[in-house]
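for the writeup, i need someone to sanity check this before i put it in the appendix. the sequnce is what the collaborator sent (i think, or maybe the updated version? ugh). structure was predicted straight from it, no edits. if anything looks off just tell me and ill rerun, i have time this weekend
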Amino acid sequence: MVVAVLALVGVLVSLYLLLFKLGVIGTLACGPGGGCERVQASHWSSLLGVPVAAYGVAGYVVLLGIALFGLRAEQLGRPRATRWLAGLSALGFFFSLYLLALELFVIHSVCRWCTASGLIITAICAVSIVGLQRPSRAPAP
């Protein structure tokens, strides 16, 4: 359930950034310095012609779906969803590290919303890895 809540928050953060990138939102609530808008205006904010935030929305939606499916599967004694959550969130974690490195060393600005997304995927990854360590529950009679 923790992963599902975190993934939902991740969807909202990524959607906010995507709406800005698409021009639906005029300015980002980022605080002084304008780092968010500078990062979003850089050519690094798109990958293969698709806004990075769209990958974030899609990734968090997939994680949310797996987490919700996993809740039901665990009740049936089939906790495989945790492996998928750990693997996919690890990919997201490493992609977030890559994006953070770009912010720090190439763009020279930090987006607080991007950092929040990075912290969310890190938490999802950590919770998923901890979930791999706990023994699976037997199915309810």
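The CA atoms of residues 54 and 91 lie 16 Å apart. The chain has one domain: 2-133.
thx in advance!!
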